[in-house]
Amino acid sequence: MSKLPKKNQFIDLSDYGRPIAKIIANSLKSTSFTPIHVTIAFVISGLFGIYCMVEGYYWLAAFFLIFKSILDAADGELARVKETPSYTGRFLDSVSDIILNFIIFIALWQSTAVSIWWALLAFFGMQLQGTLYNYYYVILRNRFKGDTTSRIFEDSTPIALKGEKQKHVNTLYFIYKALYGIFDEIIYALDRNAPKGKPFSNWLMSLISTFGLGFQLLIISLFLVLGLKEVIIPFFIGYSSMIFVFIYLRKVFY
Q1: What is the CATH number for 77?
Q2: Is residue 135 a part of any domain in this protein?
Q3: Is residue 110 assigned to a domain?
Q4: CA 230, CA 207: separation in Å to the nearest integer?
Q5: How far apart (Å, rounded) are the C-alpha atoms in residues 83 and 107?
Q6: Which one, of 57, 33, 19, 63, lies nearest residue 45 by Cα?
Q7: Which of 41, 63, 230, 245 is least enclosed by beta carbons within 10 angstroms?
Q8: Residue 147 within any structural domain of the chain
Q9: What total of structural domains would you count in the chain?
Q10: Rounded to 5 degrees, what are φ and ψ at 231?
Q11: Which of 109, 137, 134 is nearest to 123 (CA)?
């Protein structure tokens, strides 16, 4: 099941792992494995990837980071095939992502000659990129009645869905807001009227999908196997300038 109706689907450059993720989800459909279990698995894969990166096993690091991206898609796919959407899974997924991203840049700082401040700036830029991509993507999903577990504005604690506990939703929502709030506020301030505009075209969403976490991890993996680990932090700082380009295109055309 797609997050968007067929006619509104775009080439998502960050979603290259979706076909394998669907296979994983379908293989787990009739088992006791839950989307939360898959989320935990992608955390473990991400940590293995970071360890291999620090130790200099760059091909292994690339494998585990990309596998993490695949599992990151598989937890949502499993929730859809089992028809068990949950805010618990949605917030746990996002919280896990941002913590792993932070650890990646701390590991890069410790294993390169780059300043900690540049590493933090790159992390901040990477998160802003992902926030813009998710912001526009969720707008489309809500507008065309696709997957609606994610909300355009996460400004209140959602009501727990069937099968999950409200206290879990409350706790994870609090953590989510503490970690993502500043990024959401910045992107909303830069383009607060995006939900009121015309539907975004597929070509624009495909360009913005380069801000998706899957594509970001692919870029990190590529730099690692090419022996360009020192380039990763400068790249994410520089590429963050495209945030303003994409927002400008959205405002001009939509």
Answers
A1: 1.20.120.1760
A2: yes
A3: yes
A4: 25
A5: 37
A6: 63
A7: 245
A8: yes
A9: 1
A10: -85, -20
A11: 109
Q: What is the largest CA-CA distance in the chain?
A: 50
198-230: burial string, b at 16+ Cβ within 10 Å, e else:
eebeeebbebbbbbbbbbbbbbbbebbeeeebe
Above 80 in pLDDT, residue 150? no
Report yes or no on 185 lying in a domain: yes
Retrieve residue 37's tokens: 């279990």
Residue 6 has pLDDT above 90, yes or no: no
- 11-26 pLDDT, tens digit per residue, is 999 999 999 999 999 9
Residue type, 221: S
Long-range contacts of 149-156 (CB under 8 A, 24+ apart): 149/79, 149/85, 149/86, 149/87, 149/89, 149/90, 150/90, 152/195, 153/188, 154/180, 154/184
| CB hemisphere CA count around 226 (13 angstroms) | 10
- Say if residues 60 and 54 touch (Cβ distance below 8 Å): no
Alpha-carbon distance of 43 to 52, in angstroms, equals 14
With beta carbons less than 8 A apart as the criterion, state whether 128 and 183 touch: yes
**What pTM value is reported for the model?**
0.93
